[in-house]
Design goal:
Elements (H helix, E strand, L loop, with lengths): L6 H7 L3 H19 L20 E3 L2 E8 L7 H14 L5 E6 L14 H12 L3 E5 L1
Parallel strand pairs: 2-3, 3-4
Antiparallel strand pairs: 1-2
Helix pairs in contact: 3-4
Length: 135
């Protein structure tokens, strides 16, 4: 029987929060490279501004990604700030893929998204960036 990875196993293997964040960023980078068929890595700097690496072109979209590892709940201000910084450094960017270890939870009745998720998407939309969420 194949055992699927879990966040509990991830936290056990990488016990410090710094290790968890670093390894989660490595995982997100690998998923991004696989998604866009980047076989030999992608350029990045330490504390790359806004996006984790350089953007890539996918058809008409200029795509970047962010790896957001949170301990207890999603910090919408953290994501919004990163999107704004990404836009400042990459004004032609049209899409951001956000990899996060947590979900937003249940939205209020009669809504499809939580207030935090709506707020993040409104800010991004206001500067011409669409968001793709990956948990």
């Amino acid at each position: 029987m194949i055992s699927m990875p879990t966040w509990d196993a991830f936290r056990y293997k990488f016990q410090s929060e710094a290790q968890q964040r670093e390894k989660f960023e490595d995982l997100a980078r690998a998923l991004f490279c696989i998604r866009f068929d980047i076989k030999y890595g992608i350029f990045q700097c330490v504390n790359h501004a806004g996006n984790e690496t350089n953007t890539v072109t996918d058809g008409v979209d200029i795509v970047g990604f962010q790896a957001k590892f949170f301990k207890n709940e999603i910090d919408d201000n953290n994501i919004i700030e990163s999107i704004q910084i990404a836009h400042k450094h990459n004004p032609l960017q049209t899409k951001v893929i956000i990899y996060t270890n947590l979900t937003f939870g249940n939205p209020p009745k009669k809504k499809k998204k939580t207030t935090k998720q709506e707020r993040i998407e409104q800010v991004a939309s206001g500067i011409g960036i669409s968001i793709e969420w990956n948990t």
